[in-house]
Amino acid sequence: MEYIDFRDQISRNKRNSFFLMISVAVVIVLLGYVISLAFDPSYFFFIMIIAVIFSLTYTWINFYNSDKIAISSVRAKPADKIKYRDFYRLVEGLTVASSLPMPRLYIMESPSINAFASGRDPKHAVVCVTTGALEKLERRELEGVLAHEMGHVANYDIRFITLVTVMVGMISIISQIFLRSLWFRSGGNDNKDSGIFVIIGIVLAIVAPIVVGLVQLSISRKREYTADATAVKFTRNPEGLIRALEKIKKENSPEKKVSKALAPMFFSNPFGNLTSTHPPLEKRIEVLRRM
Predict the structure, then answer these.
(1) Catalytic residue among 109, 135, 143, 149
(2) Rounded distance between C-alpha atoms, residue 177 and residue 163, angstroms
(3) Is the dihedral of CA 149, 159, 172, 193 positive or negative?
(4) SS3 state of residue 82
(5) What does pTM read for this prediction?
(6) What are the structural domain ranges in the chain?
(7) Which has the higher per-residue pLDDT, 92 or 163?
(8) Higher per-residue pLDDT: 124 or 39
(9) CA diameter of the chain
(10) What are the distances in angstroms from CA 154 to CA 36, 98, 157, 228, 230?
(11) What is the pLDDT of residues 185-194, one digit of tens each?
(12) pLDDT (average), residues 85-97
């Protein structure tokens, strides 16, 4: 079995995430180029301005308030320092290991084993765990889960995913405006080749949102592997995280109270096999065993 250095795993997944994000940017440029050939170039810039305004405004509001939105969405409550003393101590220990500021801690009422981190930066981070995780996980297992969430905070994953979301949102808006505008397009266009580019544009407008959606899911999975490796960096021991993942695998109880929009933030996929924002548990365990 080939050994994996957690440092290599972190840098490799960050690099792959970056290249995947570049591929989304390439799709935006390609779609825009085809539309500019099909119609007047100024028309594309008009579409782009609208897409940027809508996408940035919606995503920025969600990004800036990501911690509040996430906590209120799952109806989490602040963790009492006395009642959840071990929870606080474990996170405090991880802040020392990671040199991160202390996040605000919350508890989510749920029998399943899960957790998530949110916040636009480490100074505004929150970490939330389910009551099931506190009840069913041993101390080292819980530390592994919390280290994974602190890994998301340390790697600025919320900020990175937000940037990708803006780009994906732009492609969806551009595609929708382009397709709807075809109803109002005049048939008398002097450009003989425009009809071909219109057809190409229609194909791209339909396919591009699907492709970038898959890329977005792939980026989310890469960030999960990075957070796992970062957890090993913080704890210097993958065993606790491995055992926690094995318990989740045996439990296999989807969390129905969670919005699908929040699924990428959770420690494990809260919807079982219905979405693919997370790598398979078996694969995560296999990679961790090689560290």
Answers:
(1) 149
(2) 21
(3) negative
(4) coil
(5) 0.82
(6) 6-63+156-183+191-234+274-289
(7) 92
(8) 124
(9) 75
(10) 41, 8, 8, 12, 8
(11) 655 445 555 6
(12) 95
